[in-house]
């Protein structure tokens, strides 16, 4: 059996909202599977025990942690997206940065004629560049 590696995102009650937001932005994306907590817990009933979703053919896993942690997402790891067109890059950057944080506004930084880095409203960090 070949080892499979997936990016794993831990949310505290926002996993389903984040998945739906992400798949709305990337064509051909989908939620692959979702398992939810029942009334027996330990998480809130209906929240995500574990889910898998696909963005651009890449699979990601996520959960709603019922345990409160002293940490969240950090920009030291980010999702890097190569966009085919400037329009795609502008659309994604506007959507992902809305109610989030812009760390590097869209611009020419030498290594890319158009690049931007932001954290979305869930705290997940994204780097967007033209291919």
Q: What topology emerges from the helices and strands here?
A:
Blueprint: E1 7-11, H1 15-25, E2 30-36, E3 48-55, E4 58-64, E5 79-83, H2 86-97, E6 101-107, E7 115-119, E8 125-130
Parallel strand pairs: 1-4, 5-8
Antiparallel strand pairs: 2-3, 3-4, 6-7, 7-8
Structure description:
- This protein is an alpha/beta fold and 131 residues long.
- Helices cover 18% and strands 38% of the residues.
- It has 2 helices and 8 strands; from the N terminus they run βαββββαβββ.
- It has helices spanning 15-25, 86-97; strands at residues 7-11, 30-36, 48-55, 58-64, 79-83, 101-107, 115-119, 125-130.
- A 4-stranded mixed sheet has the order 1-4-3-2, with helices on one face. It has a 4-stranded mixed sheet with strand order 5-8-7-6, covered by helices on one side.
- A hairpin with a 5-residue loop joins strand 7 (115-119) and strand 8 (125-130).
- The chain starts with 6 loop residues before the first strand and ends with a strand.
- The model has no long low-confidence stretch (mean pLDDT 95).
Entry summary:
This protein has helices spanning 15-25, 86-97, and strands at 7-11, 30-36, 48-55, 58-64, 79-83, 101-107, 115-119, 125-130. The chain is α/β, with parallel strands linked by helices and 131 residues long. The longest helix is centred in the last third of the chain and has 12 residues, at 86-97.
How much of the residues is beta strand, in percent? 35-45%
Mean pLDDT across residues: 95
By DSSP, the count of extended strands is 8
Query: pLDDT under 50 segments (min length 5)?
Result: none
Largest β-sheet summary: 4 strands, mixed
Termini gap = 33 Å
List the strand order in the largest sheet.
Answer: 1-4-3-2
Number of helices: 2
What is the rounded Rg?
16 Å
Shape: globular
Q: Strand-and-helix sequence, N→C?
A: EHEEEEHEEE
Query: What is the structural class?
Result: alpha/beta
Question: What is the percent of helical residues?
Answer: 10-25%
């Amino acid at each position: 059996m070949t080892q499979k590696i997936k990016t794993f995102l831990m949310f505290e009650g926002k996993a389903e909202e984040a998945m739906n937001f992400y798949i709305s932005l990337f064509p051909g994306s989908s939620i692959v599977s979702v398992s939810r907590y029942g009334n027996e817990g330990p998480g809130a009933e209906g929240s995500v025990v574990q889910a898998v979703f696909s963005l651009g053919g890449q699979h990601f896993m996520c959960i709603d942690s019922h345990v409160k942690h002293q940490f969240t997402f950090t920009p030291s790891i980010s999702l890097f997206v190569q966009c085919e067109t400037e329009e795609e890059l502008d659309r994604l950057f506007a959507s992902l940065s809305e109610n989030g944080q812009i760390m590097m506004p869209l611009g020419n930084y030498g290594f890319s004629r158009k690049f931007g880095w932001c954290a979305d409203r869930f705290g997940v960090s994204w780097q967007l560049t033209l291919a």
